[in-house]
Amino acid sequence: MTELSAVIVDSSASYCNSVAISLKEMGIPQDRIFITKRYEGAVEFINEKKPQLLITEFQVDGKFGLELVNLHASQNANNISVIMTHNNSSSSIAEAAEELVDDYIVKPFQSGMLHQRLRSLINKKLNPSDYIQRIRDGKQMLIEGRLQDAEHLFSEALGKESKPTLAHYYLGYTKYIGKNLSVANAEFVKGLKLQPLHYKCLTGKFDTFFEQKSYDEAYKVASTIIDNYPIGPKRLANLFISAVFSGQLDAVPEYFKLFAELDHKPPELRKVFAAALFTAGRSQINRQDLAKAGECFELGIKVIGPDPEYLTKVIKVLLKTDAMGHRHASKILQQFPNTQIGTKAFENLQFLVQCKILPVGDLIDRGRKLAANKRLDAESYEVFVNILLENRKITLAEDITAKALKEYPEMRDTLSMIYEKFQGIIS
Amino acid sequence: MRNFLEIHCLQNLMTEFELIKNLKTKPLEIFEFDDRCFSFQAPQKMCGLGLFVHLEGFMHIANEKHDFYATGKVTSTDTLESEKLSKYTIELHRFDKSLWEEFRKAVEQTQAATDTLFKSMKDSE
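Predict the joint structure of the above. Result:
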């Protein structure tokens, strides 16, 4: 133990102190224990001193302790990482279990418990069985990028345990990294024969199908995972993608509950889920179910927030429907952030919605005003000219067309086609 | 489903003077406990060893909030390194023992449930 060094990352001096006392009682010298409440300080210490032991809060300085765990684990497979936190939500525990965390301790704790757990964890790490030692050595080879050596060690581990599920998992994982996906899958299947709900083998199988773009299969495995385990943000994003590509669009909105339960919602996950909900909404429009489409889009907005790009996409899709899409569009328009109101982009979107709602007279007044102030974009000009011609306002249409061509000369062909469409009516 | 005890009033039992002001807005939170003791961090020299105290707070057990009143004695104070804080331990004398036991069990069960989930997903070593 005297050889070990440790870093403790926690905003509470008391918790740091408790951990430090426990470590000292185990024989780790004071000068080999570094305490910090800062994320950056911890990163610096891990990079420079390469401690074997990391004990960190789930969140540090608004950043994630799991990122420290990843950095720490990437240095050596024998390193020990512990999360010590008030946060005991299933999604956070799942997220930690997905990473290379060795123990998850919930605050507050009973006196003596911390000491006992740390001691047992360190003893287990320092005195592994033959089986675990080979797995760990293999993991170290993976860190160093030596896939063949890793495979050799994991194969050796197979003979050291009656149910070597973890060895099958790591053999599969090694093949997965080497892009030998069918062999990878075969190893995960072997592991699952030994333990049908083995989490790592299930996720390995899911990742392999996902990588192979076998989205139907990936989705089936994902359903088994969801039925039995909480799911972390990383895998949830791939689940959404597999649901969309396997055509399970009806299921997408149902995953909102899983998403809402996550403590940590990375921006990438928000983007992927919002995009999946958008696709699900569009599919409902194709089925003429505008109410369900509206629900999908509303959920999408909840997921990504009032993002002008997303709101614009949704409104434009809704305006293309023959049914009452403009009502939903009008509601969504009200969700634009105040900072966007009055911008040219917003005014055009508003105008497109008004084109479906306002009486022709009011709409013409509005369109003329925007055109006079050069506030119309190409799409709005196109829609406006169409409406004017439909309503036989030929002179005004020509005036607006002239303005459009002055501002957007590239619209000549588009506008000319509109005139061709109405030729019989206006000549 | 967090379990925690927060103290929003800590007084000298004899004088009834508050040992720390404004605890209602920034309550103390305990970080370690056993059958009849608990520890928390507070400013240094808040009180001396052996002082009898009265405390009031809320005990949060699995989303339920319970009033918690107790008297006790400060049995240890340890200065925390590089901080203007100390770790204080209070031994409880008069307190709701069944509530305390409920809290202890809830903390234990939460850790046990966490371990079950964590180990089932990890299947590590």
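Chain B touches chain A through 38 residues (CB under 8 Å).
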